[in-house]
Q: What sequence folds into this?
């Protein structure tokens, strides 16, 4: 019985975290740099790019957020991404 309760708690926490960071974008002065976002997502960290929303699906790059942010920064030298790493 305790195992099921623990599994439910962990699943809830994972879903809560996933919904809080659902997308990542490369930002230039607070505006989505769509071209760089797509490049960094697909070519640099091999994530899943959402063409409709023009962002990178965060869970597809969850272990590469720092690398994604660095790729965004390389283009302009401005703070790179809206994803926390």
A:
């Amino acid at each position: 019985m305790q195992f099921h309760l623990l599994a439910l708690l962990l699943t809830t926490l994972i879903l809560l975290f996933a919904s809080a960071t659902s997308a990542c974008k490369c930002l230039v002065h607070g505006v989505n740099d769509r071209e760089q976002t797509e490049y960094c997502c697909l070519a640099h960290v091999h994530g899943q790019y959402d063409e409709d929303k023009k962002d990178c699906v965060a869970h597809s790059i969850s272990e590469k957020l720092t690398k994604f942010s660095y790729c965004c920064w390389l283009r302009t030298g401005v703070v790179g991404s809206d994803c926390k790493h």
Observations:
- The helical segments are 2-20, 34-44, 65-76.
- Residues 11-21 have pLDDT under 50 and may be disordered.
- The chain has one domain: 22-85.
- Residues 22-85 form a domain with the Alpha-Beta Plaits fold (CATH 3.30.70.440).
